[in-house]
Design a protein that fits this description.
By secondary structure, this protein is mainly beta. The protein contains 1 helix and 17 strands.
Length: about 170
């Protein structure tokens, strides 16, 4: 048995394990669900869902959308969560930025910056610039060039690691 998307082009029938959306996920496409990988060559609009058994790659912005992958999620832009957006992956998540959203993964999360998010990663959270406001929980590491803001911030960072618990008990 083979699962995938049937393509017919130039009198050739093929089955692809990648479902491609050439444009935005919006009222024109509806929600997108696929057992393999998904490639979206556009934005994912507020209120829409993208669910994949494999990896998800999104070329545009996620605006208050719900994105879930059994594998990794790669956002070439980022997330403007509008306080309702959720990003969930069994593996890693990477994007340019995450704002006002919930992010959870079984691996690590990578971005240039985070603003007012709830992020939880079994491995690490990496900000190549800054983390401002929100709650961030990681199993091993939270790494950022700048943490907080000179204007004050409501920021909480947690490392939840059995290895660190053992170290703290020894002190």
């Amino acid at each position: 048995m083979c699962e995938g998307v049937i393509n017919y082009q130039d009198d050739i029938v093929s089955i692809s394990e990648v479902y491609t959306v050439n444009g935005d996920v919006d009222t024109g496409t509806g929600n997108v669900e696929f057992t393999g990988d998904i490639l979206i060559n556009g934005d994912v609009r507020a209120g829409f869902k993208v669910t994949a058994g494999g990896n998800i790659t999104i070329a545009g912005v996620c605006e208050g959308a719900h994105i879930e992958a059994g594998g990794n999620i790669h956002l070439k832009s980022g997330v403007i969560g509008m306080k309702t957006g959720t990003i969930k992956a069994g593996g890693n998540i990477e994007g340019q930025y995450f704002e006002n959203c919930t992010i959870t993964c079984g691996g690590s999360i990578y971005a240039k910056y985070y603003v007012n998010c709830y992020a939880s990663a079994k491995q690490g959270i990496y900000a190549f610039d800054r983390i401002i406001n929100g709650t961030y929980e990681a199993g091993k590491i939270i790494d950022s060039k700048i943490i907080g803001s000179e204007f004050g911030s409501n920021l909480a960072l947690f490392i939840e690691s059995p290895e660190l618990d053992d170290c703290v008990r020894l002190m």
